[in-house]
Amino acid sequence: MTDPRTLVEKIIDAHTIRRFAGRSLLYLDRIVTADTSRSIFHLLEAGGYKVHRPRQVLYIPDHFTPSKGRRLDDVPDPDIRQVIADTEAFSRNAGLRMFPMGDARRGIQHSVSIEQGFALPGLTVAAADSHTLTQGAVGALALSISADMVHALATQTIWLKSPEQMRIELHGRTGRGVSAKDVMLTLLARLGARGAAGKAVEFCGSYVEALGMGGRMTLCNLATELGARAAVVAPDDITFGAVASPSFAPEGDEWKTFQAAATSLRSDADATWSSSVSLDVAEAEPMVSWGTSPADVLPIGGRIPDPQREPDVARRGRMETSLAYMGLTPGTPLRGLAVDQVFIGSCGNAHIEDLQTAATLLERRKVRVPTLVIPGSGAVKAEAEARGLADIFRAAGALWGESGCSLCNAMNGDVVGEGKRCASTGNRNHIGRQGKNARTHVLSPAMAAAAAVTGRLIDVREFPGEP
After folding, report:
1. How many beta carbons lie within 10 A of that of residue 198, not counting itself?
2. 157: three-class secondary structure by DSSP
3. What pLDDT, on the 0 to 100 scale, is given for residue 466?
4. Among 48, 146, 263, 305, which has the minimal tally of Cβ within 10 Å of its Cβ?
5. pLDDT for res 246
6. What's the mean per-residue pLDDT of the chain?
7. What is the pLDDT of residue 1?
8. pLDDT per position as a tens digit, 422-459
9. What one-character-per-residue DSSP string does 159-220 give?
10. What is the percent of the chain where pLDDT is above 90?
């Protein structure tokens, strides 16, 4: 292609085998599977297919794995234990690369893939999980392809309709107590849950360039909640420092060659975008969700909105349903709302930077409500323990667990009590997401830590010693 191209379009062009009827047959460099893949594996076997290139597939159990143990025998539920055992057995027999239960590198698939150099700049990566977009933080084209996983495993390809291209420029500097999570929640509040529907989003601008890998992963992770098809950040020195790993990244002279090529992986200056958004991040404040969509979010100083003031009938109905489920009354201040539990973790906010932020606020303090802290991976867990962060969490009265999805999806024994209110750094607050009738307030690690200490939603900027 000689026309000006975006970063995503360049990756698609480089991996296209053929084009037909407006779609591209795309070669996949990497595929990630998990303990949620049992039905996919069964369908593959039932069709008489084998995994086409098993050494380019990585199995990482994360959804069903317990936070209170590392071994398969630590899984208390026999049905869940069997699911993990079945997916591990298939992966082993098929010759897949594996970080199974007990492997110190295991954790949330998106975090592990980046840490271990499985996702790399310019590569195509696919998985069934909806938050696979997280891996675009290293400049990979990371796609959620749940309906196409059998085809992907059997052929190492997928059919892809090239998405529209969307540019989100984030510039400036955030104010006190404001994180990448707050920036993304601000975008969700302004653009809505379909603000990037079906589009490939590229995050750019001075704010993005200054972010560490954890913050970039948060941006790409929450792009899923905007409805994006893909999300990327152009690779730079921060990227190369994060993925220069002996597990899967090239080594020696091969790494130098790869890095030199990847350094030039940029959108052309005159590339065409179907839409562009610009945000001065100084406008962002600490945010908290009030409803059952990540777009139902307000600054901590806001009040619960009144559905009767919403002119759109469908939107009004959704708001009424959300408030009934959340047990909230229009006009109620978010600040001061009591919470019953706190969760710090998830693929969007369990990076070492997030844990450091939370530990800074919890140091020499005690939590007032049950608080669960879950690192995003075994590597993050080890680093947090080496830094003394785990000791701070334990001293504060929080529970420090093994890496995995944990309370974010409540599929593993970690649940919010029925009717209880949870301040959560997860990425979703849908009905029943954290347990039956669980009421979830999505916020940043700093806001979650402040809620843990006070037992209520509070503006972290008012909290003594806020970062």
Report:
1. 13
2. strand
3. 57
4. 48
5. 76
6. 96
7. 53
8. 999 999 999 999 999 999 999 999 999 999 999 999 99
9. EEEPPPEEEEEEES---TT--HHHHHHHHHHHH-TTTTTTPEEEEESHHHHH--HHHHHHHH
10. 95
Distance CA 305, CA 290 (A): 9
Nearest to 186 by CA among 215, 158, 210, 219: 219
Give CA angle at 410 (404, 411), nearest 5°.
75
**Residue closest to 63 by CA, chosen among 41, 45, 38:** 38
Judged against a pLDDT cut of 80, whether residue 398 lies above it is answered with yes
| Number of helices followed by number of strands (H, E) in the chain | 15, 19
Domains, in order of start, for the chain? 7-162+239-258 (3.30.499.10), 165-232+268-283 (3.40.1060.10), 290-462 (3.30.499.10)
| Distance from C-alpha of 440 to C-alpha of 408, rounded to nearest angstrom | 10
227 and 198 in contact (C-beta within 8 Å)? yes
Q: Is the dihedral of CA 11, 96, 88, 73 positive or negative?
A: negative
Q: What is the Cα–Cα distance from 463 to 461, expressed in whole angstroms?
A: 5
The answer, yes or no, to whether residue 299 has pLDDT greater than 70, is yes
Sheet of strand 16-20, all strands in order from the earlier edge strand to the far edge: 16-20, 23-27, 157-161
DSSP string of 308-322, one letter each residue: GG---HHHHHHHHHH
Phi and psi (nearest 5°) for 179? Answer: -120, 180
What is the chain's length?
467
Query: What are 12-70's pLDDT values in tens digits?
Result: 999 999 999 999 999 999 999 999 999 999 999 999 999 999 999 999 999 999 999 99
How far apart (Å, rounded) are the C-alpha atoms in residues 339 and 112?
A: 31
Cα distance between residue 238 and residue 91, in whole Å: 32
**Pair 193, 427: CB distance under 8 Å:** no
**Residues contacting residue 414 through CB under 8 Å, at least 6 positions apart:** 66, 67, 343, 372, 401, 406, 407
How do residues 113-144 score in pLDDT, each as one tens digit?
999 999 999 999 999 999 999 999 999 999 99
Q: Alpha-carbon torsion 195, 199, 202, 208, what sign?
A: positive
Burial class (CB in 10 A: 0-12, 13-18, 19+), 171: middle
Question: 204 CB contacts (<8 Å, ≥6 apart)?
Answer: 167, 168, 169, 170, 233, 234, 267
Residue located via tokens 């750094």: 425
Helix ranges (DSSP H) in 367-408: 378-387, 389-396
Under DSSP, the state recorded for 403 is: S
